[in-house]
Amino acid sequence: EGQAATITAPLENFVPEKFTGFAETNGYVSIHADHFSKAMKEGPVRWEMIPGIGKSGNGMHTHPVTAPAAVAGKGPFLEYPVWLSDTGRILVNVSCSPTLGFNGDTLRYAVSFDDEAPQTVNILADHSNKKWTRWIADNINISSSVHEVGKPGLHVLKYWMVDPGIVVQKITLDCGRLKETYLGPPETRIPDHF
Description:
The structure is a single chain. By secondary structure, the protein is mainly beta. It has one helix spanning 129-138, and strands at residues 21-23, 28-32, 38-40, 46-50, 59-63, 77-84, 88-96, 108-113, 119-122, 141-149, 153-161, 168-174, 189-190. The radius of gyration is 18 Å and the shape is globular. The termini are far apart.
């Protein structure tokens, strides 16, 4: 009694009061595709929402589906503000609706943080019958890219159209502690989440 004690408590999820976007929570960030802050079109190619197509929400795709492929980083994109608590390696998982390779064995999108060069991902990289059966059973095709983040705080995540015909349902950032679940983690949207 009467003695001073020092207690250290980490504030893992400190987010500025006026921030609107998606914050790292318990080692992940979870984003429903239709909750973008900006949808940039390119010429006649624009973004459209498909209600209820996702396992846990709506999906986004580009229209027209006959548009030519775009160069990663030059075409239409969806933008999401994210608040990260730490630095280092982040695995960006993009959940898309199962889609056949109507142009061959390639259906690509790209992802970037801030001003980094976009990373292109082919959602049909493994288009075996076993994979297709799993995608249909789960109503999802999850593909990933790895990014290095050099500072905590505010970042801008961009999802770029490369090939048309992809319906993106959800984007999840695994900051090192994401646990596997059937529907994926709940959305970490601010101010809705807290």
